[in-house]
Specification:
Number of domains of chain B: 2
Bound molecules: adenosine-5'-triphosphate, magnesium ion
Strand content of chain A: under 5%
Helix content of chain B: over 70%
CATH superfamily of chain A: MetI-like
Distance between the termini of chain A: 25 Å
CATH architecture of the largest domain in chain B: Orthogonal Bundle
CATH superfamily of the largest domain in chain B: MetI-like
CATH architecture of chain A: Orthogonal Bundle
Strand content of chain B: under 5%
CATH class of chain A: Mainly Alpha
CATH topology of chain A: MetI-like fold
Number of helices of chain B: 12
CATH topology of the largest domain in chain B: MetI-like fold
Shape of chain A: globular
Structural class of chain A: mainly alpha
Largest interface: A-B, 86 and 87 residues
Number of strands of chain A: 0
Order of helices and strands of chain A: HHHHHHHHHHH
Distance between the termini of chain B: 32 Å
Number of helices of chain A: 11
Chains: A mainly alpha (261), B mainly alpha (273), C alpha+beta (354)
Radius of gyration of chain B: 23 Å
Helix content of chain A: over 70%
Number of strands of chain B: 0
Radius of gyration of chain A: 22 Å
Oligomer: heterotrimer
Structural class of chain B: mainly alpha
CATH class of the largest domain in chain B: Mainly Alpha
Chain lengths: 261, 273, 354
C-alpha cells in the first residue's frame, strides 16, 4: 500500500475547495432574504426561488432551450450513429479524415460558429432564428454523440455481429436487433451529454436571439448583467441539482470513468 | 461492410458538417478578403489599432496564464486521484465532473457572488477589519483568469487522470528497485509517461480560454476585453460585420495553430508518444 | 555473495494479515524458490524483501546487516516483475541503463556495461528499439538485463515466466539459471509452476496461506513431503489414515481402519499422534484380483478410467475409499473389473495427520 504524502493530500484538499466551494457559495446565496447578492446571507428566505417563476422570460427561454436541445440531440444521434457505426466496423480509405471531419465542430470557436451562422443563414439566407439555432446546436453536439457512440461500439465485439450475420440476419437488421440493444447505454449517455452541452451553450446562442426566441443561458446572462438580486443564484441551484441528477444517470449508463480518458 | 455502404452511412454527417458548417465558415473567411481592400488589408487595419492589439495579446496572455495555473493545480491533483483507492477515486472524479457539467453561466456567476462588492471575500475582509470599503475585485483580468481556471481545471484534471491511471504501478517500484529515490523515480517515470495527458489538457484549456465567451463577458470589464467579447461587440453592437469576420478568421487560425504547435512540441519532447 | 535472512516477518494489507511469523534463509549464492498456490503470499514476501511493503514486524537481514527499514532504492536488489514493468517511454538501452544512471556511473562505462549485458542476454540487435515494441520473450530478457546490470546483491523474481508460452518458458528458465550461476547471485524466485521450480532451484520453499510448510532440496520435497499440504501439492493423491503397530523387519508396521496392513521404510521418523500414509498414483501397482496376504494389498474395482497419453489413470473403489492409480498401456482394465492394488513399502510416505 502506498504511503500517503500529507503535503500532497493538503494541496488536493485545497484544489477541491476551489472546485466545489463556489457552487456551495452560490447555493447559500440563493437562500438569502436580502435584495443583493451576499454571502454569507444575512437572512434566509425562499423568495428568490419564487422569483424564477415570476420572471416569465425564464420559463419561455427554458422551453426554447429544451426544444432545441432535444431536437438537436436527436438529430445528432440520427446522423451520428450510422457514421460512427460505419467507421467503427470498416477500415475504408479516408477513415481518419472522415473521423477528423466529424469531430471538427468542437475545434471551431463557439463565437465564430455563432457569428457565421447568424450571418450566413439568418441575415443572408432568411432562415428563421429558431431553425438557425437548431442547425448550430446539432453541429456542436454531433462530436459528442459520435465520440461516445464510437467508444461504446469499440467495446462491442464485432464477432457477435458476425455470429448474427452467419445465422442469416442481414447486416442492416443485425444493427437493429444485435448492435443497438447492446450499445443502449452508450446511446443513452450520448444523449445526456449532448443534451447538457446544448442546454449550457452560450457562445453560439448568444448571436442567435430574435423576437421571442432566446435560450435560457442567454436569458440568464442578460439577467446577471442587469440585475443584482439572487434570482440567478436560485436558478443555479435548480440547474446544479438537475446536473447532479444527470450525472447519476451517466454513472448508471456509462460509468463516470468515461470522463477520465 | 462494403465500402460503398460505409460512405453512404457517412453522407448525412458529411452533409451536416461539410455543408451546413463549412459553407457559413467559408463565407465568413471570404468576406474578410472581399471588397475594395488590399489582400490582408483588414488584418493590417486590425493590428494598426492599439486597442485591438491589446485585445489580441491580452487574449493570448490570459489563455497562457490560465493554462499554466490549471496545470499547476491539476497535475498533483490528478496524480493523487490516480493513486487513490477505487472509492476515493470515483468520488474525486465525481466532484471534478459536477462543475464541468454545470452551466458556464452558473460557474462564472459564482465568482460574482464571491468577488462582488458584497461578495464573500469583501464581507470577510470587512468583518476582519482588514479593509474599510469593499475592494473592486471583479471586472479585471485577474477575475477573468480566476473564472477561466475554475471553468477549465476539471478538463485538465480529467485528461491527466485518464493517462496516469494507465501507468503501471510496477514501473515506480521498478525504478526504485533500480536505485531511484521516489521523487526521482516520479520525474523519470510518471512525468514523461503522463506528458500526453498534459498535452491534451493544455490544448483543451488553452483553446478553451482563447475562445471562451461567457466568463470574460461576465467577469471582465472594459479594460479586459478579449477576442470573443470583441467579436460580439463588433457584430451585435456596432454591426461591423467585416470587423467581426476578420476577428473570427483570426480566432480559427489561432486555434488551429495552437493545437498544431502544442502537438508538435509534444512530439519533439517525447518520441515515444 | 551475501546471505538473506527473513526473521519472523508479519505483513498485512490493511487489516488483512498475509504473512505470519515467516522465517527464511537464502544462503550465499543459492537459488531458492517460493512455491505456493495463488494468493498464498509469495508476491507479498518478495515485496517485503524488496522494501516495497513495510513489514508489521520482523526483520530482513542481508549478511547480518539490518535492511528492514532501508528504502527500496538503497537496497541494491534486482527485481524482475511478472509484468516486466519496462519503461514504455524508453528504448531497450535506456531501460537497461536506468539503474546505472541512478548510480551516477560514468557515461562511457554505462555504455560498455549495458552493451555487454545486452550481448549476454542476446539483445544487442534490439538496443535502440522502444520497449513496448518487443515480444514477450524479448521483454523478459530486457527485464532480466536491467536487473542484472546493476550487479545486485540479491535477485528477486516474481513469476517472471508466467506470461510466456510453454516452449519459451523452458528456454528462459534454463537461461535464468545459467545467468544466476554465471554471476553467482543469491536469488529468491517466486512461481506456482512446480516443474519450473524444481528444475532451477537449489532449494524450494513451499508456502501455504502465509506460512512456510517446508524448506528443502527439490528432491526431498518431491520424495519426502513434510505435510499433507506439501504432499498434495507435489502430486500425492492417495491418503490413508493409519495406526502405528511397531517395527518388524526394519520396517514400520501400520494398520488402516478396516484392518488392511501396510509397511513403510524405517528411514522416516514417525510423527507423534495420528498418522497419514501418502502414496502417488504411479507408485501403486495394479493387477488382476489375486490375494497373497502380503502387507499393502488392497482389493477394489475399477470405477472410472481416463487415458493419459502414456498410460491410463483409474479411479479404484476400495474399502479405504476411492484411490487414484496409474496403469500401463498394455491390457487396460475396464470399468467394473475387480483388481488388487499393491502399495510397495518404500513408496509410502508417513505424515502427521493434522
Ligand atoms: N495491494 C493489496 N491490497 C490488499 N490485499 C492484497 C494486495 N495485494 C495482495 N493482496 C492480498 O494478499 C494475499 C496474498 O497476495 P500475494 O500477491 O502475495 O499472492 P501470491 O502468492 O503472489 O499469488 P499469485 O500466485 O496469484 O501471484 C492475497 O489474498 C491478495 O488478495
Ligand atoms: Mg503474485
Amino acid at each position: 500500500m502506498k504511503r500517503g504524502n500529507p503535503a500532497l493530500a493538503a494541496y488536493v484538499t485545497l484544489v477541491y475547495f476551489f472546485l466545489l466551494g463556489p457552487l456551495f457559495i452560490v447555493a447559500a446565496a440563493a437562500f438569502s432574504g436580502s435584495n443583493f447578492l451576499e454571502f454569507p446571507p444575512s437572512s434566509l428566505s425562499l423568495k428568490w426561488f419564487a422569483n424564477i417563476l415570476a420572471v416569465s422570460a425564464f420559463l419561455e427561454t427554458f422551453i426554447v432551450s429544451l426544444q432545441i436541445a432535444v431536437l438537436g440531440t436527436f438529430l445528432s444521434l440520427v446522423i451520428g450513429v450510422p457514421a460512427a457505426y460505419a467507421l467503427s466496423r470498416s477500415a475504408v480509405p479516408g477513415r481518419g479524415v472522415l473521423q477528423a471531419i466529424f469531430v471538427s465542430p468542437v475545434i471551431v470557436p463557439g463565437v465564430v460558429l455563432g457569428f457565421s451562422l447568424l450571418r450566413f443563414y439568418n441575415v443572408q439566407g432568411g432562415v428563421p432564428v429558431f431553425q438557425t439555432l437548431l442547425i448550430g446546436h446539432t453541429l456542436i453536439v454531433l462530436p459528442y454523440s459520435i465520440r461516445v457512440i464510437s467508444s461504446s461500439l469499440a467495446n462491442f465485439e464485432p464477432a457477435i455481429e458476425e455470429a448474427a450475420i452467419s445465422l442469416g440476419c442481414p447486416r442492416w437488421r443485425t444493427f437493429f436487433v444485435v448492435v443497438l440493444p447492446n450499445i443502449r447505454a452508450g446511446v443513452m449517455a450520448a444523449f445526456i451529454l449532448a443534451f447538457i452541452t446544448s442546454m449550457n451553450n452560450v457562445p453560439v446562442s448568444v448571436f442567435l436571439t430574435g423576437p421571442g426566441v432566446s435560450t435560457l443561458p442567454i436569458q440568464m446572462l442578460s439577467y446577471v448583467e442587469n440585475f443584482f438580486d439572487p434570482t440567478i443564484a436560485s436558478l443555479s441551484v435548480v440547474l446544479i441539482a438537475t446536473t447532479a441528477g444527470f450525472m447519476f444517470l451517466i454513472e448508471r449508463t456509462l460509468g463516470l470513468s468515461y470522463f477520465a480518458r | 461492410m462494403r465500402y460503398s455502404s460505409v460512405y453512404l452511412l457517412c453522407v448525412p454527417a458529411l452533409v451536416l458538417v461539410g455543408l451546413l458548417l463549412a459553407a457559413p465558415l467559408y463565407s465568413t473567411v471570404a468576406q474578410t478578403f472581399g471588397g475594395e481592400v488590399a489582400l490582408f488589408g483588414r488584418y493590417g487595419a486590425f493590428f494598426e489599432n492599439a486597442f485591438n492589439r491589446d485585445v489580441f495579446f491580452r487574449t493570448l496572455k490570459i489563455a497562457l496564464i490560465t493554462t499554466v495555473i490549471a496545470a499547476a493545480l491539476g497535475y498533483p491533483t490528478a496524480y493523487f486521484i490516480s493513486q487513490a483507492g477505487p472509492k476515493w477515486r470515483s468520488l474525486l472524479i465525481l466532484c471534478a465532473v459536477l462543475p464541468l457539467l454545470t452551466s458556464s453561466v452558473v460557474r462564472s456567476f459564482s465568482w460574482i457572488v464571491i468577488l462582488g462588492r458584497k461578495g464573500s471575500v469583501n464581507t470577510l475582509l470587512m468583518k476582519l477589519h482588514v479593509i474599510d470599503a469593499p475592494l473592486r475585485l471583479l471586472f479585471n483580468e485577474i477575475s477573468v483568469v480566476i473564472g477561466l481556471t475554475y471553468l477549465f481545471l476539471p478538463l485538465m484534471i480529467l485528461s491527466l487522470v485518464g493517462v496516469m491511471e494507465n501507468i503501471e504501478d510496477d514501473l515506480m517500484d521498478a525504478a526504485t528497485s533500480l536505485g531511484a529515490p521516489r521523487i526521482k523515480a516520479f520525474f523519470a517515470v510518471i512525468v514523461p509517461l503522463s506528458l500526453p495527458g498534459l498535452v491534451v489538457g493544455a490544448v483543451l484549456v488553452f483553446t478553451g480560454s482563447l475562445t471562451s465567451f461567457t466568463t470574460p463577458q461576465l467577469l471582465g470589464g472594459d479594460g479586459s476585453t478579449v477576442l470573443s467579447t470583441l467579436i460580439f461587440r463588433q457584430a451585435m453592437v456596432l454591426f461591423d460585420w467585416d470587423g467581426a469576420a476578420t476577428i473570427a478568421t483570426m480566432m480559427v487560425v489561432l486555434t488551429l495553430s495552437v493545437i498544431t504547435a502544442i502537438n508538435m512540441a509534444a512530439r519533439r519532447l517525447n518520441p515515444a508518444a | 555473495m551475501p546471505t538473506l535472512e527473513l526473521r519472523k516477518i508479519c505483513a498485512s494489507y490493511g487489516d488483512n494479515r498475509i504473512l505470519t511469523d515467516l522465517d527464511l534463509e537464502v544462503a550465499d549464492g543459492d537459488f531458492v524458490s517460493l512455491l505456493g498456490e495463488s494468493g498464498c503470499g509469495k508476491t507479498t514476501t518478495l515485496r517485503v524483501v524488496a522494501g516495497f511493503l513495510r513489514a508489521d514486524s520482523g526483520g530482513v537481514l542481508l549478511d547480518g546487516e539490518d535492511y528492514t527499514r532501508r528504502p527500496p532504492n538503497r537496497r541494491g536488489f534486482g527485481y524482475v516483475f511478472q509484468s516486466y514493468a519496462l519503461f514504455p517511454h524508453l528504448n531497450v538501452f535506456d531501460n537497461v541503463a536506468f539503474g546505472l544512471r541512478q548510480r551516477k556511473v560514468a557515461r562511457e562505462e554505462v555504455r560498455r556495461r549495458v552493451d555487454e549485458m545486452l550481448e549476454v542476454v542476446g539483445l544487442a540487435a534490439l538496443r535502440d528499439r522502444l520497449s513496448k515494441s518487443l515480444s514477450g520473450g524479448q521483454k523478459q530478457r530486457v527485464a532480466l538485463a536491467r536487473a542484472l546490470v546493476i550487479k545486485p546483491d540479491l535477485l528477486l523474481f516474481d513469476e517472471p515466466l508466467s506470461n510466456l508460452d510453454a516452449k519459451l518458458r523452458v528456454k528462459m528458465r534454463v537461461e535464468i539459471r545459467r545467468l544466476q550461476q554465471e554471476f553467482k547471485i543469491t536469488t529468491l524466485y517466486v512461481t506456482h509452476d512446480q516443474e519450473e521450480c524444481f528444475s532451477i532451484s537449489d532449494k524450494v520453499t513451499v508456502m501455504n496461506d502465509g506460512v512456510i510448510e517446508q524448506f528443502d532440496r527439490p528432491e526431498h520435497i518431491f520424495s519426502q513431503p513434510a505435510s499433507p499440504f506439501v504432499a498434495r501439492f507435489v502430486g500425492f493423491e492417495n491418503f490413508f489414515q493409519l495406526r502405528h503397530q511397531g517395527m518388524s523387519d526394519g520396517r514400520h508396521q501400520l494398520v488402516a481402519a478396516d484392518g488392511t496392513k501396510f509397511e513403510a521404510p524405517d528411514r522416516q521418523t514417525i510423527p507423534g499422534g495420528r498418522l497419514l500414509g501418502a502414496v502417488r498414483p504411479e507408485a501403486i501397482a495394479l493387477g488382476p484380483a489375486a490375494r497373497t496376504g502380503q502387507a499393502g494389498e488392497i482389493a477394489g474395482s475399477i470405477a472410472f478410467r481416463t487415458y493419459l497419453g502414456r498410460g491410463y489413470q483409474y479411479i479404484v473403489q476400495t474399502a479405504l475409499g476411492d484411490l487414484t492409480v496409474n496403469g500401463e498401456d498394455q491390457q487396460p482394465f475396464a470399468t467394473g473389473d475387480t483388481v488388487t492394488l499393491r502399495v510397495p513399502p518404500d513408496r509410502m510416505v508417513l505424515l502427521g495427520d493434522a
